[in-house]
Amino acid sequence: MTVDVLVVGAGLAGLHTATRLARAGHEVLLVERRSTLTGAIRTTGIFVRRTLDDFALPPGCLGPPIRRVVLYPPGLRRPVTLVSARDEYRVADMAALYVTAARAAADAGVRILLGTRYAGRRGDCVLLVGPDGPTRVRARFVVGADGARSRVARDLGLDRNQHLLVGAEEVFAIPAGGEAPAFHCVLDPSLAPGYLAWVVNDGRHAHVGVAGYADRFPDGLRRALQRFRAAAPGLPGVDHPEQVERRGGPIPVGGVLRRISCADGLLVGDAAGAVSPLTAGGLDPCLRLSELAATVLDEALRIGRPEALTRYDGAALRARFRGRLTLRRGLAQVRTPALAAAAFTLLRTPLGRAAASRILFGDGSFPDP
Ligand SMILES: Cc1cc2nc3c(=O)[nH]c(=O)nc-3n(C[C@H](O)[C@H](O)[C@H](O)COP(=O)(O)OP(=O)(O)OC[C@H]3O[C@@H](n4cnc5c(N)ncnc54)[C@H](O)[C@@H]3O)c2cc1C
């Protein structure tokens, strides 16, 4: 099989890049190792206002808007509540969103192979292993949309993520008529070392999760989630059911990688490290970077020269991440509950509240490439 572009991974980054390229008239093959797009979901699916403003996400896949964020110190006493005048977040039904995006990709002409794993390069071909066995594919360009631990990045000799958090959450339906939708964040390094524990309650579903540096969880990620679940805020009168959907995975927080393209292809989404180092939000960055990826690949295919891909430069984007990388290093240093509690003394001041509002309700999720 010969195609213009082989996209590896049907997460949001891969689906978006593939669709854009097919709409530009290129022959695109998209392969995904999962046999269904509705299983093994990794993300909470919180979309920020800026993404909702700039990208036409299917409204039927989005939950109710959230304007309220509640920040808790260890022990959960005297939380800080921030309320935006605008709708800031919506949690997507990710299974429905992936299926809708895949349908749009197929309608644009993308050939999608599920249950098909990228297994490396063999000479000038790529080896795919699917339900019917191995196949060789020749592609002008390969797009690594294969997540934080990208095999495509390794095979193309591009940069790879070194700084990762790991996160896990449980998702379950909640009865209607409860609390107003809110995003509850707990800063407690004994539960979530280097990041946050969270409860997102949008009035339809609850997401209860923790994330942090893998080697810093005192009793491992799973135990931390169990402990948090037992006392999670923001769910008064809601019983935690036995049957929950479990999600989780690595989150790159080292900033966009420097070398994300070469003559044979490029990286998008988590594979490129396109995640906000501070908030660990990757859905907005993966859409924005995929737009740029599709533009440069379209140009390279049209003029028939791979030099167009040099415009796809992670180092240039990375320079605009300096502030967020500094804040990430600061958050990583909050290593004890006492230090987290002290940080709340600052957070309760007008200046602290203003800074937190800027991070949580600002427009700075990812620089426009
Ligand atoms: C617990 C958790 C919660 C999160 N919550 C949020 C949130 O609420 N908001 C937000 O903005 N960000 C969030 N993030 C980050 C966000 O989910 C990611 O940045 C984003 O989903 C990345 O999309 P992607 O398409 O690059 O990668 P992925 O969604 O990881 O997709 C990669 C795909 O590649 C496939 N793949 C991998 N290897 C191969 C192979 N060899 N062959 C074929 N297929 C392959 C995988 O199966 C996968 O489907 C969260 C992350 C985690 C872990």
> How many β-strand stretches?
18
Treating each run of at least 4 consecutive H or I residues as one helix, how many helices? Answer: 10
Tell me, briefly, the overall form: globular
Fraction in helix: 25-40%
Work out the count of structural domains: 1
Q: What CATH first level would be assigned? A: Alpha Beta
| Ligand identities | flavin-adenine dinucleotide
Strand content: 25-35%
Helix-strand pattern, N to C?
Answer: EHEEHEEEEHEEEEHEEEEHEEEHHHHH
Biggest sheet: strands, sense, closure?
Answer: 8 strands, mixed
Uncertain residue ranges? none
Protein name: Dehydrogenase (Flavoprotein)
Pfam family, one: FAD_binding_3
Organism: Micromonospora echinaurantiaca
Domain FAD-binding: 124-163
Q: Any overview of this molecule?
A:
- With 369 residues, the chain is an alpha/beta fold.
- It has a single domain (2-361), classed as FAD/NAD(P)-binding domain (3-Layer(bba) Sandwich), CATH 3.50.50.
- The chain contains 10 helices and 18 strands.
- It has helices at residues 12-23, 49-54, 94-108, 151-156, 220-230, 283-303, 314-318, 322-332, 337-347, 350-361, and strands spanning 2-8, 28-31, 46-48, 62-66, 68-72, 80-83, 89-92, 111-113, 117-122, 125-130, 133-144, 164-173, 182-186, 197-201, 205-212, 245-252, 261-262, 265-267.
- The strands form 3 sheets. Strands 1, 2, 8, 9, 10, 11, 17 and 18 form an 8-stranded mixed β-sheet that branches. Strands 6-5-13-14-15-12-16 form a 7-stranded mixed β-sheet, with helices on both faces.
- Helix 1 runs parallel beside helix 6 (283-303).
- The protein is globular, with a radius of gyration of 21 Å.
- The two termini are 33 Å apart.
- Residues 124-163 form the FAD-binding domain.
- InterPro entries: FAD-bd, FAD/NAD-bd_sf, Geranylgeranyl_reductase.
- It comes from Micromonospora echinaurantiaca.
- This is Dehydrogenase (Flavoprotein).
- GO terms for molecular function: FAD binding.
